Hints:
By secondary structure, the chain is mainly alpha-helical. The chain has two domains: about 1-75, no CATH class; about 75-280, no CATH class. The chain has twelve helices and seven strands.
Amino acid sequence: GSVLLVSDQPLQFRPAAEHASLGTLMIPDVPGVLHTLDGQHRILALYAYSAQSPEAGLPPALAELQIPTILFDSLLPAHAVEMFVTINTKHTRLKPDLIVSLSGRKLYPERKLAIAHDIVRYLNDSDASPLKGQIRVLGVGPGKLSQAPLAAEMEVLFTHFEAAGEAAATEFYGEAKQFFVTYFRQIARTFPYAWDGRKYSIKTGTAFRAFLRVAPDILMRLRRRGVSLTEARAIGEIIAPWSTLVGDQRFETLGQWREKLASSGSRTVDLLAAELRNALGA
Length: 282
């Protein structure tokens, strides 16, 4: 099967004289210039097989082997990790070895963004998630929610968690998928008309970024209660005041939603997050 690679730097392509679309890709002889997005274990197996040959050069079987390869050059690290996690993630926790490139370096210097993309993908794939099939993964899908902004917002959230203490952050990562599934299910129950209606903007990146920014306040209240971070009843009780103090009408596209749009998307997120935070229960 084909493999997907990414280069840290732009690569030069020398077209053949008779075919402009055919030619030679010039890859610098520098260790670690290429990283694997997909097909890592196949490449490692081929490398191990070639290293076992007692003869100089490649074994005959490998010398004639052609492997279809797609290579992305100058790909931003955030885009690389988004593609990597989306391609390799499972419904279970992302395996740590998948975040390591062939050169032994991490594909991305921070694990937070990889974890965030893993969670977003889970929200889109899990049968228990109220967002199943509603997130555009790598820009593809019928939903209004895009994968990248949600993951970026989660990464900021995780940065605050780790600043407060690595142990607490690690504990949260183990329950993060279930927490967000439960959290968004309770949001759907708190705003039933907005969630199921077509004339509301609750299922937009702006609204969900605001919900994510309030997540630390909800987690703080859960810890204060001494309950599990994934307890649906407790989460529902904490955000219950939203149904009256915020209400479905806050998300009416041609109503309050439009009236409260700020000068920028980020400012609109800040305003909504402040409303939600001020309306939280104990």
